[in-house]
From TrEMBL, chain A:
Name of the featured protein: Putative ABC transport system ATP-binding protein
Residues covered by the ABC transporter domain: 2-225
Entry similarity comment: Belongs to the ABC transporter superfamily. Macrolide exporter (TC 3.A.1.122) family.
Organism: Sinomicrobium oceani
GO cellular component terms, semicolon-separated: membrane protein complex
GO terms for MF: ATP binding; ATP hydrolysis activity; transmembrane transporter activity
Gene3D superfamilies for this protein: P-loop containing nucleotide triphosphate hydrolases
Keywords: ATP-binding, Nucleotide-binding, Translocase, Transport
From TrEMBL, chain B:
Protein name: ABC-type antimicrobial peptide transport system, permease component
Cellular localization per UniProt: Cell membrane
Coiled-coil ranges per UniProt: none
Keywords of the record: Cell membrane, Membrane, Transmembrane, Transmembrane helix
Superkingdom classification of source: Bacteria
Keyword hit for Transmembrane helix: yes
InterPro entries xrefs: ABC3_permease_C (IPR003838), MacB_PCD (IPR025857), Macrolide_Exporter_MacB (IPR050250)
Primary residence: membrane
PANTHER family noted in UniProt: ABC-TYPE MACROLIDE FAMILY EXPORT SYSTEM PERMEASE COMPONENT 2, MEMBRANE COMPONENT OF TRANSPORTER-RELATED
Signal peptide: none
Length: 225, 799
């Protein structure tokens, strides 16, 4: 599903150039659950941003579903992203001014789903995430665990092929963290490809494969199953 | 999608109430002013636009060519008849003489009821040229007979109550009984014709003293006789004017100049042709329009600056939406929708405010704008343009800034100031606001200064102690003298003069031709007449520079002239003028110059001092008494004058005016313009203040950490306040440098309309800059002081 080859990304200030990704290459097959680990500043989040088509690489190749996407303009990337990729963030990133229902509905609005279909789909996902009873609440009225459930619901409501999770349990206690990991595992079992950036060895064990990075390069790769 | 946009917009407004309040209040005030200005402009642009054939209606006007061209909206009485009888250009021609307020008495009940409505004398075709609808009747037989009148519905109600006014009678000027033959619907306010009583022209022709409207007379245009025509279809007014060019030579050769022209003024142009009286300078409308635009611009700049500054708070939402697949243009549209919603709320409030303040606006500025002006397609179109225009103007820049925010940075909260709009752009916008406000304040100061200069300068005659009292017509010399003697018999009365007009305090006097020293030709300038008895110069405090005053006689053979007359003639020594023969207005006055008076301002400061003669009126055509009173006992003096006057004229209404009030009245339009500019400049500063408050609030929030660190390192409150001031100080300085030459250019141009004008001093520029500086200082201090005196531990912990 994903094939990156010699991927490069630099950050430049006036005097210094920092290498974030240094000729990084790996593949992710459809249905796989891959965990990416490494110390802070090793390039995990940069990689995730590029994989999520939020950022452009400075070099190398990025093939998504058989298409080279590294040269895509912003509009094309947004189009590809909204139909294929769901995001789960450490800090949930729910829109404070929208209710649970409206937050989850948002990706469907951007993909042009009709109102009645949207309603059915949001209800279905909220039921599945066991957050239906909180649908009219605003994010700040929910616990961290509930907020992350909503974020997961929002990530999957469009049935994306790929979910990118950036330390999804980073702001949660272990109980809520495990619940979220169970949800991601379940989604993966239903066929969704998941790439997760994490510091947690515990969370990483939920994945099929762990890629460890250092200084923008892949250092090891462990297959767990 | 739109629903989602509105929903989030509404929730954002509720969440950041103070920001929304600043934006909405500023825009609402801007809209309110724009709506009031729209009503003002619409009122003037729709003047008399309800007449069916207004494209074929023309007014005859005269151009009197002497050393300069004098434009007169009046014509010699013979002109309409020649035009109607000798040519085939016109479908209809009608004369009108507006006599201003006339005494109307209704003898119903025990005591006669007296009124002074504005009254005109019109020919029958007047109401066939114009479309003022009659109630119940047509005009087939109206105003053809003498002593008949048409009155407005409002006037009919006032005169006759609920009884039918048709065939009821009233007495005009205690002389003629007039029968009402028709009732007009009340005239709209935006019409040139503002009389309430229209008496048949024939009534005037059959009454006393009508030589000045004799149908064969070609002399003089200062007769208040106006003439309108409805041309036949497909007539070329330029060709007609070519034909009329021959008339001065044909009908009135010397002494009147053959270079005089009669012209056809298109009816729709009358209201805006400032060469003639009773018009409004269309430039004023555009200036007010521009002020309205600038007020809205200031409010938009507030919106842009505050929204751009606040965009950092919206960055997370933008990041999330982009992650979820929103395109830039979708985000742009979202923020535009949000601006639209805020604009809509502001517009509704602004509309409410303008309706609420309309009566106050009308009263304060002496206007007659109606709420009906808010119910038409024009207004709907204006509102739509305003709404969409402002939403786009105010929303585009913040929308672009927000839409271009990189999602990765937004989600990591790593936005820098440049990500939320260039600080240079913000500075330019704030400076523009200051420029607008400073220009407006300078304008207010210059206009005010000019009015003060015009009304408080030494005019060369006394104004503060003079009371002008009206006189009924048809008085005999003996009656006038008796009245004068009775009035002067009080210790509170210093002097009395019976006269035709006061020395100044009027814009349009009677200018006529003059022949000096028996020269073969009449002079190439008009001389202004000041008719009065032998006490005229003493009463009004006009100084003699040579010779003596004229002596009271039965005939008029002694004349006074002013210094300018000598200058125009080319004689600079007043003594040389003495004893020289002078002939005025053909043979109206023939005499010798016995005295020269010091120049006085015989008209307002727009025009230069004219050549003037002072002499008694040969036909006793006096209409006023000038009374010099003891101002210490004004009340007693006025009571005495009224008592004497009413004992003499029990059937007339006593009216008086102080001469200095009349001087002020001459600058009514300037006063109105000043009041409007003052209001709008105040609002501009207020909206500016809102913007400064919003920006300083944002900066204070942004600099909390910096303030904390500076305080820990020993920074004083004043140093910290300086953080918030210094940018504004620089911007106000720059704004002052930009605004001053702009304001100087426009105000200097405005002052050129005056022959006598005030100086634009340095303080006119310094004061507005100082005002804006102090205002900014106060606002920034209010917000900044709290930050500067807060416990640094708290601010650092909160970071």
């Amino acid at each position: 599903m994903i094939k990156i080859t010699d991927l490069e990304k630099y950050y430049r200030t006036e005097e210094v150039q920092t290498v974030a990704l240094n000729k990084l290459s790996f593949d992710v097959r459809e249905g796989e659950f891959v965990a990416i680990m490494g110390p802070s500043g090793c390039g995990k989040s940069t990689l995730l941003n590029i994989l999520g088509l939020l950022d452009d690489p400075d070099g190398g190749s990025f093939i998504f579903n058989g298409i080279e996407v590294s040269g895509f303009n912003e509009r094309k990337r947004a189009n590809l992203r909204k139909h294929n990729i769901g995001f789960v963030f450490q800090s949930f990133n729910l829109i404070d001014e929208l209710t649970v229902y409206e937050n989850v509905e948002l990706p469907l609005i951007y993909t042009g789903v009709k109102a009645t279909d949207r309603k059915n789909r949001v209800h279905e996902v909220l039921e599945k995430m066991q957050i239906m009873h909180r649908r009219n609440h605003f994010p700040q009225q929910l616990s961290g665990g509930q907020q992350q459930r909503v974020a997961v619901a929002r990530a999957v409501v469009n049935n994306p092929k790929l979910i990118l999770a950036d330390e999804p349990t980073g702001n949660l206690d272990s109980s809520n963290g495990n619940e979220v990991m169970d949800l991601l595992t379940e989604l993966n079992q239903q066929g969704t490809t998941i790439i997760m950036v994490t510091h947690s060895e515990h969370d990483a064990k939920f994945s099929h494969r762990i890629i460890r990075m250092l200084d923008g390069q892949k250092v090891t790769e462990n297959v767990l199953v | 999608m739109i629903k989602n946009y509105f929903k989030i917009a509404w929730r954002n407004i509720r969440k950041r109430k103070s920001v929304a309040l600043i934006n909405i209040l500023g825009l609402a005030l801007g809209f309110s002013c724009a709506i009031l200005i729209f009503l003002f402009i619409q009122f003037h642009l729709t003047f008399d636009n309800f007449h069916k054939d207004s494209d074929r209606i023309y007014r005859f006007v005269s151009e009197v060519h002497r050393d300069h061209i004098a434009y007169k909206s009046t014509v010699p009485p013979a002109l309409p008849n020649v035009f109607k009888n000798d040519y085939n250009y016109a479908e209809k021609v009608a004369k009108i003489i507006d006599r201003g307020e006339q005494l109307i008495t209704v003898n119903s009940g025990a005591t006669p009821q007296r009124y002074k409505p504005r009254t005109a004398f019109v020919e029958p075709d007047f109401f066939r040229i114009f479309n003022f609808p009659l109630i119940d009747k047509d005009f087939s037989d109206e105003l053809t007979a003498p002593n008949t009148a048409i009155i407005t519905r409002e006037m009919a109600k006032k005169l006759f109550g609920d009884t039918s006014p048709i065939n009821q009678t009233f007495i005009w000027d205690n002389k003629d009984t007039i029968r009402v033959t028709g009732v007009l619907k009340d005239l709209p306010k935006n019409t040139l014709i503002n009389s309430r009583v229209f008496i048949s022209f024939k009534t005037l022709q059959t009454s006393d003293r009508t030589s000045w409207i004799a149908t064969e007379s070609w002399t003089g245009t200062a007769t208040s006789l106006q003439c309108f025509t409805l041309l036949r279809l497909n007539q070329d007014p330029l060709k007609i004017e070519q034909e009329m060019k021959k008339w001065p030579a044909k009908y009135h050769p010397e002494p009147v100049s053959t270079e005089d022209h009669y012209k056809l003024q298109p009816f729709p142009d009358i209201h805006f042709d400032s060469r003639y009286s009773n018009s409004i300078n269309i430039k004023l409308l555009w200036i007010l329009g521009a002020i309205g635009f600038f007020l809205i611009l200031i409010a938009c700049i507030n919106f842009i600056n505050i929204s751009a500054a606040q965009s950092v708070y919206r960055s997370k939402e933008v990041g999330v939406r982009k992650v979820l697949g929103s395109f830039k243009d979708q985000l742009f549209r979202q923020f535009l929708t949000e601006t639209f919603l805020i604009t809509l709320i502001a517009l509704i409030i602004g509309f409410g405010l303008s309706v609420l303040f309309l009566p106050f606006f009308n009263n304060t500025f002496n206007l007659s704008l109606s709420k009906n002006g808010l119910i038409n397609f024009r207004f709907a179109g204006f509102i739509a343009i305003l709404l969409i225009g402002v939403a786009i103007l105010a929303g585009s820049y913040p929308g672009i800034i927000l839409a271009r925010i990189a999602p990765v940075l937004a989600l990591k909260r790593k936005l820098t100031q440049s990500d939320t709009g260039s600080s240079l752009t913000r500075k330019i916008l704030v400076t523009s606001q200051f420029v607008i406000s400073i220009v407006l304040i300078i304008a207010v100061l210059v206009i005010g200064k000019q009015i003060k200069y015009a009304t408080s300068s030494d005019l060369g005659y006394d104004t503060s102690t003079i009371v002008m009292v009206g006189l009924p017509e048809t008085l005999e010399q003996a009656q006038l003298n008796t009245l004068k003697n009775k009035i002067v018999q009080s210790s509170n009365i210093k002097r009395v003069s019976i006269c035709f007009t006061s020395p100044g305090a009027q814009t349009d006097g009677w200018g006529t031709d003059v022949n000096f020293n028996g020269n073969p030709k009449y002079e190439k300038f008009l001389i202004q007449s000041k008719m009065g008895d032998e006490d005229y110069i003493e009463t009004f405090g006009i100084q003699l520079v040579a010779g003596r005053n004229f002596i009271k006689k039965d005939s008029v053979d002694e004349v006074l002239v002013n210094e300018t007359f000598g200058t125009k003639i080319g004689i600079n020594s007043p003594e040389e003028l003495l004893g020289k023969p002078i002939k005025i207005s053909d043979d109206y006055i023939q005499g010798r110059i016995v005295g020269v008076v010091k120049d006085f301002y015989n008209q307002d400061f727009h025009g230069t001092i004219s050549p003037v003669f002072i002499a008694p009126a040969p036909d006793l055509w006096y209409n006023e008494i000038g009374v010099k009173i003891n101002r210490k006992n004004t009340k007693e003096a006025l009571q005495h004058i009224e008592q004497q006057w009413t004992s003499y004229f029990p059937n007339f209404i006593f009216e008086y005016a102080f001469l200095n009030d009349r001087v002020t009245e001459m600058y009514k339009s300037e006063q109105q313009f000043l009041s409007l500019t003052r209001l709008f400049s105040f609002l501009a500063i207020f909206i500016d203040g809102l913007g400064i408050y919003g920006l300083v609030s944002f900066f204070v929030a942004q600099k909390t950490k910096e303030v904390g660190i500076r305080k820990v390192l020993g920074g004083r409150v004043i140093d910290i306040l300086g953080l918030f001031f210094k940018d504004f100080f620089t911007l106000i300085g720059i704004a002052g440098l930009i605004a001053s030459p702009i304001a100087w250019y426009f105000m200097n141009d405005w002052l050129q309309h005056y022959a006598y004008r005030t100086q634009i001093n340095w303080w006119v520029f310094a004061l507005p800059i100082g005002c804006v500086l102090v205002l900014t200082l106060l606002i920034a201090s209010y917000k900044g002081y709290r930050a500067a005196t807060a416990n640094p531990v708290k601010s650092l912990r909160s970071e």
